């Protein structure tokens, strides 16, 4: 159906956006555009200037469609106020959401002014007067159509001939649902990112604590290693000096005894090398036996045999074991909160290992250490060792507070060995 408004031809079968003329421009009237920036947040900053944060594309599409729908309605405050107030949250950023009431009051005043100046409003007020002043001219084509208004009110006719608003509302609801889905997906993504960040922070904190603990253990072990290396170097230096001194003293003593004792004949020498019915003995052993019977004032220094040198090595090894034992416990006493394994504890035996802990070995080790301690300090030394090897003290230093059967047996052997 085609209807003629004066000289214009309008096809009612065409969509609304192609033929309907808007009654007013809500975007311009309400001041949505912020200069060249376009549509931005309607809130004001503390300095009184307009906020420049842009509206998201999804919200802007929904707002534009809503304003397009309102542009075909009369700016009656009673009719459009509720529609406009629904759009306020979409036109304010998160910083100016509290200014909703201020913007609402401003819009109400603007709508009142527009409604007062609209010709359609004035036409409604003077409708009775205009009907009495109608002329007696013959009816035109548009007057003969009962569903049309007078030509003086084309806006009212266009408003009644609007296509179904249900289609526009359905489109708006679809956009709103789409916006809600996007917002929900974004919230889920943010929630997952927040959980991942918390998990990374937790693992980083645990790794940092583990690194600090390993660094402390490394510092303790490094200090122990340096102390043990220094003491071992001192022990090796003392052992080397002792061996050199004994070697230097051995040579002149052999020379003196060779001058005092005439050299035997070949037969006697052969007989002395292989005495009948007995094991062979070296000249050095005979010399040692002869020097052992001499007076202490006549002999210079006792020469050492292979057996005596081995005993000296054993003695020096015991001295090093004592020093290593005391050095390790000195470092451990300086760090009482350090947790160790069973094998890392210096045990009171020559090897320092738990596998060699027996009551007899502990007694030998403790007696050797007591010989180097003055008599007045031996009781304090024994008391300190008993406290050090109590089950409570050892349990405090172990990583695993649960003691095995072997560990309990070793501690009992140590307690019995210390009580010498």
Automatic annotation (TrEMBL):
<feature type="region of interest" description="Disordered">
    <location>
        <begin position="231"/>
        <end position="305"/>
    </location>
</feature>
<keyword id="KW-0175">Coiled coil</keyword>
<protein>
    <submittedName>
        <fullName>Uncharacterized protein</fullName>
    </submittedName>
</protein>
<feature type="region of interest" description="Disordered">
    <location>
        <begin position="122"/>
        <end position="161"/>
    </location>
</feature>
<feature type="coiled-coil region">
    <location>
        <begin position="172"/>
        <end position="231"/>
    </location>
</feature>
<feature type="compositionally biased region" description="Polar residues">
    <location>
        <begin position="123"/>
        <end position="153"/>
    </location>
</feature>
């Amino acid at each position: 159906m085609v209807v003629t408004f004066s000289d214009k031809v309008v096809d009612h079968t065409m969509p609304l956006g192609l033929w309907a003329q808007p009654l007013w421009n809500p975007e311009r009237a309400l001041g949505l555009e912020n200069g060249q920036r376009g549509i931005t947040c309607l809130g004001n900053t503390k300095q009184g200037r307009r906020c420049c944060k842009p509206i998201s594309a999804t919200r802007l599409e929904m707002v534009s469609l809503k304003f397009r729908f309102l542009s075909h309605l009369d700016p009656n405050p009673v009719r459009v106020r509720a529609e406009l107030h629904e759009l306020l949250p979409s036109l304010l950023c998160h910083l100016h959401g509290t200014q909703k009431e201020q913007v609402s009051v401003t819009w109400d005043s603007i709508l009142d002014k527009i409604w007062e100046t609209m010709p359609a409003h004035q036409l409604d007020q003077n409708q009775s007067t205009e009907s009495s002043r109608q002329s007696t001219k013959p009816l035109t084509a548009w007057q003969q159509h009962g569903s049309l208004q007078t030509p003086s009110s084309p806006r009212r006719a266009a408003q009644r001939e609007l296509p179904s608003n249900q289609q526009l509302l359905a489109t708006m609801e679809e956009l709103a649902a789409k916006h809600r889905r996007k917002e929900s997906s974004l919230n889920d993504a943010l929630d997952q990112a927040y959980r991942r960040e918390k998990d990374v922070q937790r693992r980083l904190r645990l790794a940092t604590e583990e690194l600090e603990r390993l660094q402390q253990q490394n510092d303790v072990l490094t200090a122990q290693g340096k102390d043990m290396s220094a003491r071992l170097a001192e022990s090796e230096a003392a052992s080397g000096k002792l061996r050199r001194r004994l070697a230097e003293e051995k040579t002149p003593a052999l020379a003196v005894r060779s001058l005092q004792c005439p050299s035997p004949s070949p037969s006697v020498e052969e007989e002395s090398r292989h005495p009948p019915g007995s094991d062979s003995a070296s000249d050095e052993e005979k010399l040692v036996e002869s020097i052992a019977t001499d007076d202490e004032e006549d002999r210079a220094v006792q020469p050492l045999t292979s057996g005596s040198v081995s005993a000296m090595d054993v003695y020096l090894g015991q001295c090093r074991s004592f020093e290593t034992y005391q050095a390790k416990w000195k470092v451990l006493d300086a760090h009482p909160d350090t947790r160790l394994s069973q094998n890392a504890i210096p045990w009171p035996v020559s090897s320092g290992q738990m596998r060699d802990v027996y009551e007899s070995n502990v007694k030998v080790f403790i007696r050797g250490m007591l010989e180097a301690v003055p008599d007045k300090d031996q009781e304090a030394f024994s008391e300190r060792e008993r406290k050090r090897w109590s089950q409570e003290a050892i349990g405090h230093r172990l990583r695993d507070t649960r003691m095995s059967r072997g560990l309990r047996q070793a501690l009992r052997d140590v307690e019995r060995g210390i009580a010498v």
